[in-house]
Amino acid sequence: MSRLAQTEGLTDIQREILSTVRDFVDKEILPVATELEHRDEYPTAIVEGLKELGVFGLMIPEEYGGLGESLLTYALCVEEIARGWMSVSGIINTHFIVAYMLKQHGTEEQKEYFLPKMALGEIRGAFSMSEPGLGSDVSAITSKAVQDGDEYVLNGQKMWLTNGGTSTLVAVLCRTGDAQEGVAPHKAMTTFLIEKEPGFGEVRPGLTIPGKIDKMGYKGVDTTELIMDGLRIPADRMLGGMPNRGFYQMMDGVEVGRVNVAARGCGVAQRAFELGVAYAQQRHTFGKPIAQHQAIQFKLAEMGTKVEAAHAMMVNAARKKDSGARNDLEAGMAKYLASEYCKEVVEDAFRIHGGYGFSKEYEIERLYREAPMLLIGEGTAEIQKMIIGRRLLEEYRTQD
What we know:
Layout: H1 12-39, H2 44-53, H3 71-84, H4 86-105, H5 108-119, E1 125-128, E2 144-148, E3 151-162, E4 169-175, E5 189-195, E6 201-204, E7 207-209, E8 223-234, H6 246-282, E9 284-285, E10 288-289, H7 294-322, H8 328-353, H9 363-376, H10 381-395
Parallel strand pairs: 1-4
Antiparallel strand pairs: 2-3, 3-8, 4-5, 6-7, 7-8, 9-10
Helix pairs in contact: 1-2, 1-3, 3-4, 3-6, 3-7, 4-5, 4-6, 6-7, 6-8, 6-9, 7-8, 8-9, 8-10
């Protein structure tokens, strides 16, 4: 094994794509990531470079101008990009989820209109489920869409939009029916495709994107609220052209998004391991490199094992989805394990750096602030455990 997180069974095309992305990360992202992150600056030049590489259209079918690659290829690219700077992978992830939802659930007119421009990165996507008062309870959303002739009028407040300011297309989940006895709340929700101008303030009549939310980490990428006040959307901008299917569409998108978050965890953990193992060979104490102390070797052994295990579970979840099979169990397990292991590997690398890990001059300080986002993004650990537990009970149900 030359290094950690290798993937068996890849095609020549997949290996070529990953090699190209890795070279881009090493040359264009790693040298500037920490500086941009400390300034909370959007990585415009990096994003333009990824557009030229075709990353924004990686999973969009060739008939719509994309590369038509698999979820596995995409996830492995995300792993590489997150190794460079996790915020960049977040910029791509929300775009990817919206493109995936359009590919899977959109009308032919919606696919033909949006996907070719999304493949080029000319239209960049964001998606919105969460609201200020509901957290993980998506079925409790209060944002509402009421039909008025050939339009819907949307009102409500959304929270935690990645790419909220820089995106030009937002997939928004709204309630389109009142609660009725015997009807589950999630059966009265619809996803709307909202086109807007990039930027902050009123980006189209009835739609306001306030300024960026100031965050502990995950900087550079803009995270915002979204406020709808009498926003009018044509009925043909309902995803799939039919109401009350939004919850299922969003959950399908989140399922592949969880593979993405797992890949991000793998990438950040791999970078933390690289930093830790390099520093352990450079730093001397008691007359020898600290890597020669048994305590540090134990840490490196644990870190490397966690990187390998998380990568293997992420690859398994992606391949399961690519096969056409249900993968919510595998995606939940991969997201849960990768995010938890990422946090642990980053902290161990931080400890190996000693006092220098607390300095902003060292890259591990940035990773230490970035890792916690993965613990809550695309569903907390507790949500993943609920999904995993329910699915395991389905698989291992005993006879009454």
